[in-house]
């Protein structure tokens, strides 16, 4: 079923429609100077498509928050959220399929770039089962994908530009349809603008912008002059979702109002010139500030006399030192830590997330479970995480053989230790050799080729010996003499 939404009317008075399904596959670029009607066009597009598809609006000026009252969009105030919170919120937005407006009003350019990048990356990195169609509208896109470096930090610019490039180039497979609007094509990064296949070009005056608009629409230089004469709210459309040839159209009315409407002309107040002169030029009253009286300086402190007069407090008045935890308390804490770590790794995507993200989530879960004692340091968390990914249980952890494995693994890079422990556990218990998919999961990647390179690296370091036979692959541990049972290298990960 083809869903056609009505943007407005053509010059001949016929309805100007947009194929929504084709738009999701081919993306849209809107260009026009300030006052040409870009925001009006975006509002019309979102209002007409709201019943059919989920929407997300990156709103730098807070113009689109009024969509919440009429169409139920969730408004997120980016100034009140951290980048991590926005990334998590973006994942939940796609999970619950809620339309949202990210209000960036009140933030400087650097803050807008950082928070919009975190939000876009959160929507981009969700699991495959959440890849449902979604329109992602970015107003004033030249802020988030500038063609040249500005006054913002290089880190914020790279993050924002990368997120916008992902949206426009790789977002289609994830169901994300980028709709970007800009005042000037010359200010927008070319690698972002080049990914759009549909165009709506509005009024513009600079020759360079008119020429670029004409080039995108396949028009010659003489036809480019028409962009200077377009009235407000009129655009020239081209693209598979709009028209196969350049089509002038006028955008229809909208149901919701913007908060950034320009000021209206109104008559000046009737005032007497002399009264206005006196009111404007009257001297400002001097602020009366009470001068605080400074207290007299304290007498000099005799440190030697204080030391001589000091006496230690009686034993019964001293604060009691905290008692050392008992063996039962230590065992209960370790049990809770293991439960939290297992619950953390139950998420299928946990194996592929950065260690820093998993560590932050782990600390939050520990506070929720009221795990006492000093929080785990990051190196200790890395060690436990590597062992957990390898499937190491309490029985192996306490054995003398495993202590030898841990000592040998410590000589390897941190990201490889988990893979070595997985192979060592299989060899110790005579289990089948882990498959490439299982090794990739322990290494934190989805690439089977990278998993095979990790095993090759361990063999080059003299840690393991790999044997290929008819029954499958075997891995033996150098010096220890343990060997896995044959395993299918192409099997799926558990």
From TrEMBL:
Provide this UniProt record's keywords sorted from A to Z. Answer: ATP-binding, Helicase, Hydrolase, Nucleotide-binding
**Could you cite one Gene Ontology molecular function of this protein?**
helicase activity
Q: Which InterPro entries match?
A: AAA+_ATPase, AAA_16, ATPase_Atu1862_pred, HerA-like, P-loop_NTPase
Q: Which superkingdom does the taxonomy of this entry point to? A: Bacteria
Indicate whether Nucleotide-binding appears among the record's keywords. yes
AAA+ ATPase domain segment(s): 24-214
Q: What is this protein called?
A: Helicase HerA domain-containing protein
